[in-house]
Amino acid sequence: MTVRVRYFASLREKMGRIDDTLVYENIATVADVWRAVSSGRPIPDQLLCAVNMEYAEPQSLVNDGDEVAFFPPVTGGSG
Amino acid sequence: MTVRVRYFASLREKMGRIDDTLVYENIATVADVWRAVSSGRPIPDQLLCAVNMEYAEPQSLVNDGDEVAFFPPVTGGSG
Amino acid sequence: MTVTVCHIPFSPYAELEAYQQLMGDEVRRFGATAIFVGTMRDLNLGDEVTHMVLEHYPGMTERQLEQIVAEAQARWDLLDVLVIHRVGEITPGDSIVLVAVWTLHRGAAFEACRHIIEELKHTAPFWKKETVRDGERWVESNTKG
Amino acid sequence: MTVTVCHIPFSPYAELEAYQQLMGDEVRRFGATAIFVGTMRDLNLGDEVTHMVLEHYPGMTERQLEQIVAEAQARWDLLDVLVIHRVGEITPGDSIVLVAVWTLHRGAAFEACRHIIEELKHTAPFWKKETVRDGERWVESNTKG
């Protein structure tokens, strides 16, 4: 299966890249995706994740062709 | 003493005039002013009053040269 | 702080744009602006309203509006406040009232803006007389906030 | 209902004027408009900020904003909603976000407007990176509402 993984904001800078394309066969959940891109580490508490542009949880399922995103807490708006 | 009395909105229409100038000597309070302009009636519950453009009560004192106003509940703004 | 009773139609957004232009570098200091615009509807109490006359008490109205704004300034940390209220002959779709509050943070802006419009409706001497199909009528009470 | 992510400076008041023009006779139906404008300040956490970059997640950001507005529409009786959020390079004094809500009565307008800006700040994927005297820094958390 193929999964596109995207990173935003400070996480993008920490990862040193804007995205990855995974072709592993052993990916079932968002947590598996994170382990694949971070040398097996667990998802940091603060990190948010999305599957196909909808918020998701570490245990959310990932399917072939999905876009998975990781990013820090959001800080839009003003005031 | 001289007191100018002003009427607004539906009260102005009911009174049939926009103001009165009283020159009575026996006026001490806003209620006295109202009695003088309304053939001795008490101030209706709903009516609001002001002395020199500040909200006042029926028992508020009136002095020579004051402007006393009577008007119905206010309905400004919108929404 | 500016309070204006306006005798001709006004565009709240043109007024806001112009007012903020005059602030100059001040615009770099505030983070939040909360604004309320009240507009004349063509329907009230189930009746079609063709136009309306808004009467006020020149002198007292301005004084009351200034007191309402001063009270809000004492209660919240407000950088600036603009209040414009229309009087005279008004047509559906016309703006009746504008309340704008500039603050550092949004909580105070929303709370002060809402407080000012509620106080205005309850204490500022304005009276509405509507023209409906079968004649004229004084509006006797305000809608709840 | 319109939600826009805007890549260049915008005037919230010119946008509101233009948006309302397009409503036509609709303007005779609403009585209340509540508006929030968020502006970039030149000071944050005690430091002078010279400029800022606002990053977003194209596609997800718009979808989140639309969901936030749809939820508000389900909860309150809203006649129209306009949300504009700036992204890219931003200078102090620039407008960052505009939320405008048109309703019959002011209660729903204020509540929905505030709800939308709070939800936006907590869930819409935007991230701020500030340039201060000694370099750049990511803003790590939002101010409370």
What does this structure look like?
With about 80 residues, chain A is α+β, with helices and mostly antiparallel strands. Chain A has a single domain (about 1-70), classed as Ubiquitin-like (UB roll). Chain A is about 20% helix and about 25% strand. In chain A, strands 2-1-5-3-4 form a five-stranded mixed sheet. With about 140 residues, chain C is of the alpha+beta class. Chain C has one domain (about 1-140): Aldehyde Oxidoreductase, domain 3 (Alpha-Beta Complex). Chain C is about 30% helix and about 40% strand. Chain C is built from three helices and nine strands. Chain C has helices at about 10-25, 60-75, 105-125, and strands at about 1-5, 30-40, 45, 45-55, 80-85, 90, 95-105, 125-130, 135-140. In chain C, the strands form two sheets. In chain C, strands 3, 4, 6, 8 and 9 form a five-stranded antiparallel sheet that branches. Chain C has a four-stranded mixed sheet with strand order 1-5-7-2, sandwiched between helices. In chain C, strand 8 and strand 9 (about 135-140) form a beta hairpin. The two termini of chain C are about 25 Å apart.
Q: Kindly report the CATH topology of chain A.
A: Ubiquitin-like (UB roll)
Radius of gyration of chain C: 16 Å
Oligomer: heterotetramer
The name CATH uses for the topology of chain C is: Aldehyde Oxidoreductase, domain 3
Largest beta-sheet characterization of chain C: 5 strands, antiparallel
CATH superfamily of chain C: Molybdopterin biosynthesis MoaE subunit
User: For the terminal residues of chain A, how far apart are their CA atoms?
Assistant: 44 Å
Major sheet of chain A, described briefly?
A: 5 strands, mixed
- Give the largest interface: C-D, 38 and 38 residues
Q: Kindly estimate the percentage of residues of chain A that lie in beta strands according to DSSP.
A: 25-35%
**CATH class membership of chain A:** Alpha Beta
> What would you call the shape of chain C?
elongated
Helix and strand succession of chain A?
Answer: EHEHEEE
Given helix and strand content, the structural type of chain C is alpha+beta
